[in-house]
Amino acid sequence: MSELAAEDQPYGTFFRALDFAAGVLVCAGAVVALVWLRPRARSRALSLLTVLGWAGIALFGAATAADSRLPLSCAPTADAACAARERAGLVPAAHAAHAVSSSVAVAGALVGMVLLTVVVRKSRAWPAARAGGVLLALVCVELAATVWTLAAVAAFDAGQGTWGLGVAQRAQLLTIAVWLAVAAVWVVRSPREAPG
């Protein structure tokens, strides 16, 4: 996905702007949810999980915004010359920084998704069969997409092709987006009975 926003891509500026806006909005939404939902915690353990979960989502948003400010100079999986420069260490340091910020973003999303799904499933106010079940299924899909992405990155680094890296990353981001939308719907529909 990051290659769409690379500096040498025709719509790179557009995709970087979308990444930045999405990251800022997710981060802001997580902070608002944290402030809004934290006082409603039923137990100390659920309160801690809620805080850590929303912090993970905020980290995902902040790292996504940072990603947009650390664009790749070229698209290594689509351009053999770019891949050769990357292997030789002849690309800007932003390539390495982008890899770190992308990893932090996915780690934050996973932490947030797992912890908040646990909170929803443990909360008596939210029907676990509806909210918790859907969120848990999405967490499982996200974990599978993340494993696929990591395997594809390893394969690409070993010169074994891309293994559908772009598709795997799209699956990751789509799953995160759907999870956030589902979580937001339940938060809005049950403002007095939010998890935690």
Automatic annotation (TrEMBL):
Keywords: Membrane, Transmembrane, Transmembrane helix. The keyword rRNA processing does not apply. The lineage of its organism: Bacteria, Bacillati, Actinomycetota, Actinomycetes, Kitasatosporales. InterPro entries: DUF998 (IPR009339). This is DUF998 domain-containing protein. It comes from the Bacteria. The chain crosses the membrane at residues 20-38, 45-66, 99-120, 132-156, 168-188. It comes from Streptomyces aurantiacus JA 4570. The keyword Transport does not apply.
